Amino acid sequence: MAVERDVMDAAGPYDRAKALSAFKLGDVTFYWITRACAISVLLILGGIIISLIIGAWPAIREYGAGFLWTQRWAPSADPPVLGALGPVYGTLVTSFIAMMIAIPIGLGIAIFLTEICPIWLRRPIGLAIELLAGIPSIIYGMWGFFVLGPFLADSFQPFMIKVFDGVPVLGTIFAGPPSYLSLFNASLILAIMVLPFITAISVDVFKTVPPVLKEAAYGVGCTTWEVVRNVVIPYTRVGVIGGIMLALGRALGETMAVTFIIGNSFKIQSSIFAPGTTISAAIASEFAESDGLHQSGLILLGLLLFILTFFVLAAARLMLMRLEKKAGN
Amino acid sequence: MNPIYVSRRRKNIIIKFLCLGAAAFGVTWLALILFTLFYNGLAGLNLAVFTQDTPPPGSTDGGLRNAIIGSIMMTVIGVGIGAPLGLFAGTYLAEYGKHDRLTSVIRFINDILLSAPSIIIGLFIYGAIVVPMGGFSAFAGCLALAVIVIPVVVRTTEDMLGLVPNPLREAASALGLPRSLVIRRIAYRAARAGLITGVLLATARVAGETAPLLFTALSNQFFSLDLTRTMANLPVTINNFVQSPYVYWKQLAWSGALLITLTVLALNIGARILGAERTSK
Fold first, then answer.
1. Which residue of A30, A149, A155, A245 could cross-link B180, Cys pair, CB 3.0 to 4.6 Å?
2. Predicted model pTM
3. Domain span at residue B236?
4. Cross-chain CB nearest to A309 (options B21, B103, B117)
């Protein structure tokens, strides 16, 4: 043993065994560092769920399931009365209207970019749409507050109210008075914000359609629209729906833009031109000044939002993964 | 001509115009938002914005120095914590655990975190850091930003390492290079532009984040570099100023908004140019 070691030491800077063991140590260390970092992603998710549940626990114990269908939100009452119905309603309605606006337009842009647009214009228009996604949400909020809100309240809303006045159901949905702060304004801003997500994913999945399929359809005399309608969309349906769900996940959780222009009213009103609130807007505007049960109630709202978005996003990912598998084969 | 052909052609033209209209609609919003920002923001943009601190209520001079520096500091520290972590995690997913069950679980969870509402991240850091530490702090804000950075970097790192051709790795391994050196010396180097793109995109994403800072870093009217106390930052300052009754504050909010948007868009465009260079090579 001793002799062997001496020989090795004598080998000096070219000591093979030493170099190998240094390599091995470096290898093992690097492996475990990367593995630990990868696992920390799971820990973050676990941390989010645990910290939300701990924070929401007093409110869960106090209100139980009734929290979900109570409309009254009176944090300063004694004891505070808190119900999630208003914010949950606002979240679902604004996201729904936003998707109704964003889906046709987002798909239209994607079709334009992949099938109609001349090639030299593709990059600039594509970039402009992608930059819409880059603008911070507080800028959208500010812009909606100062520019879009007044515009809608002065021109678009009175017009719609007049048109649908007296029509049964629609008359109540588009009822006056016009307002700077309303569910509809928030929905429109949300629609603009999620538009790039729908477009980007649709463009990506439209590109996975094998050119042979499209060429065959054009070859038998189909028009552009018929190719899109009967070849491109059926082939990519799962991916498009995945993209839409991803955008929906964004819309549900969007905070700053909505907080500025929704009016923060917990009362549920039938008109979409009336102010309302969403889960994230309620948290953003009240959390900093809350304490005790009120704060716990807000965290419970956050937990509800997280569960909601988690399932929407999970469904979106599963659909996109299915398409990826198809494209891979 | 056959009436069926006519109606098919007419339908096609209508749809084409609708698609053109949709694209115009999208581009118009970007133009409108940028126009308003420049129109309102440029007017108030002068040297004082960069050299003076945020004014007290009612005052008509002052700038955004403390908020700008606070924002830069928190973004840099947040990215400094989040980017290496994300880089290593992405490395594991792409290099070591490619066919692991654990990898597919982590990838799935990461994709969900990527789009999780940022206000939830704020609530998480509030519960995990702010409450135990006994108060709002800039450090908590940095951590909240880091949590947002991680999934972005994990995703791009994994994608970019996946693009590195395997023969490169095999050649290095054949020369006797250990695995960790193959990754660091060969794979990282080959994917460098892509990795930087990922970090730039993540920086762009957090530079304008407001919601997670609202109840972690809060804001501060004064200049402070102390990470254990509240710190001014542009997004929250804008948020506070927009809702104030003071004309000068609103003016500052517009200038701040212009600064943030230009920074974020520049980062986005820079990342894209870098990414495009990579693919054209």
1. A30
2. 0.90
3. 49-276
4. B117
